[in-house]
Amino acid sequence: MAYQVTVDYDVPLADYSPTFESLEDRVAAALATLSDTDSFPDAIDQMDQALSRSIFVGDRMASDNDLSQPGVVAHIGALLTEYDKTVVKSAAQLRTYITNRLILETDSADPRVRLKALEMLGKVSDVGLFTDKTEITMRHRPTEELEQLLRERLTRVIEAEVTAPPPAEAQKPTAIDFSELETDDGPTE
To answer: Could you give the 3-state DSSP secondary structure of residue 171?
Structure first.
């Protein structure tokens, strides 16, 4: 069976060569080039800022031409750096907010809420009061000692098998006569 290939000519082709590198990697390489050539821009104009923002938010793909403009590269680099700092700063702020809210909850009238807040505060990694810690102690023994222990256990297992009672098949069940049994009502018949 042969396949027929249909080409859509009405779909516009990209005006840049596709790449599988991330924007961060491409910008880092362009920033390294700017640093090596000592060609950082003194000021970034409004057009470069607008272009770099549209690339940063994903409205536009960064072409090789875009990343060859020092103003665009410098501004995208600054945006990426600030974004990373903002995420870290947000995480620190969130941690502080949660800790402060837990401190407020320790004054609750409900004892269950109070105890839970105190427990959660104790689990904060800086405090570390209620963290579950597992301590493993390994005792290293010489090979000869381990071999001796193994021999002793094997000897006990073998001796237990030799002195074991005969299997249940060899014993025959005996018949029980229930007619001679007495109950509270008297003998059964």
So the answer is: coil
User: Hey, is 24 helix, strand or coil?
Assistant: helix
Q: Residues in the chain with pLDDT < 70? A: 1, 13-20, 85-89, 127-132, 164-189
At position 31, the amino acid (one-letter code) is L
Alpha-carbon distance of 54 to 82, in angstroms, equals: 16
Supply the pTM of this predicted model: 0.39
Instruction: Show the beta-strand stretches assigned E in the chain.
Output: 182-183, 186-187
- Please report, for the chain, the start and end positions of each structural domain, with discontinuous segments joined by +: 14-131
How far is the C-alpha of 80 from the C-alpha of 22, rounded, in Å?
12
Structure confidence at residue 180 (pLDDT): 64
- CB neighbour list of residue 179: distance below 8 Å, 6 or more residues apart: 188, 189
CA neighbor of 79 nearest in space, from 22, 21, 24: 24
Angle at 127 between CA 122 and CA 130, to 5 degrees: 40
Q: Which amino acid is at 169?
A: E
- pLDDT at residue 177 in the model: 67
